[in-house]
Amino acid sequence: MDCKLAVSLMHDYLDNDLSRQQQLELKSHLLQCVDCRNRFEELEQTDMLLYSLTHHATGPSDDLADRIMGMLPQQKKQKLWLTWIKNHPAITAAALFLVVMLFSTVSFWSQENQLIVKGSELDKLIIEGNTVIIPPDQIITGDITVENGKTQVFGQVQGNLTVIDGELFQASTAHISGQVKDIDKAMDWIWYKITNLFSDVAYR
């Protein structure tokens, strides 16, 4: 028996349509031909799978399509939080901003208390250790920010003076034309940063 004839008889064998003699001839060929034997095993497995699907105990064969679809890998459902983010971009951006500000503030607070002085005309200031002094004969034009230090004002500041996590002393001769801000707490620092950020955006 050649392989072509054997393949055609395999389907009839699985359907029990072969005579006794044809069954013996096919089995004899399968014992000798490895390729045909492998093919027969594949057809037999496929036939068993179809039989189990069409004769499932949970219901009649008319729900075959439903069972086949249930066996297929299901498409991943989009996560609810991702959908919420897409539907609320403004709230998401605000929350992300607050988280970034919080982490940056915590990082700032964990650093060493190093004196930082910002502003214009810094050459008119006197710095002794962690103390910033505005002499009585000096007029500073512009804003001044002192972080992690003491500030002593004897002269004039034509602008705002901000002291962060430090001490402020104003002599009787001192004159500050702008606002004076003394920030000591972490939450005050966060609020100061947020308000300054929005003020910068508004003036741009």
Overview of the molecule:
- Pfam families: zf-HC2.
- This is Anti-sigma-W factor RsiW.
- Keywords: Membrane, Transmembrane, Transmembrane helix.
- Belongs to the zinc-associated anti-sigma factor (ZAS) superfamily. Anti-sigma-W factor family.
- By secondary structure, this protein is of the alpha/beta class.
- It has two domains: 69 residues; 92 residues, no CATH class.
- It has seven helices and eleven strands.
- The strands form three sheets. Strands 1-5-8-11 form a four-stranded mixed β-sheet, with helices on one face.
- The radius of gyration is 43 Å and the shape is rod-shaped.
- Nearest-integer average pLDDT: 78
Number of helices: 7
Intertermini distance:
91 Å
Shape: rod-shaped
Q: Biggest sheet: strands side by side, in what order?
A: 1-5-8-11
Work out the radius of gyration.
Answer: 43 Å
Low-pLDDT windows of residues:
57-61
The number of distinct β-strands equals: 11
Look at the helices and sheets and give the structural class: alpha/beta
Strand % is 15-25%
Helix-strand string? HHHHHHEEEEEEEEEEEH
When the domains are counted, the total is 2
Fraction of residues in helix: 40-55%
Oligomer: single chain
Biggest β-sheet strands, sense, barrel = 4 strands, mixed
Describe the protein's topology:
Blueprint: H1 3-14, H2 20-32, H3 34-54, H4 64-71, H5 80-87, H6 89-110, E1 116-119, E2 126-128, E3 131-134, E4 139-141, E5 144-147, E6 150-153, E7 156-158, E8 161-164, E9 167-170, E10 175-176, E11 180-183, H7 186-203
Parallel strand pairs: 3-6, 4-7, 5-8, 6-9, 7-10, 8-11
Antiparallel strand pairs: 1-5, 2-3
Organism: Paenibacillus uliginis N3/975
Protein name: Anti-sigma-W factor RsiW
Family: Belongs to the zinc-associated anti-sigma factor (ZAS) superfamily. Anti-sigma-W factor family.
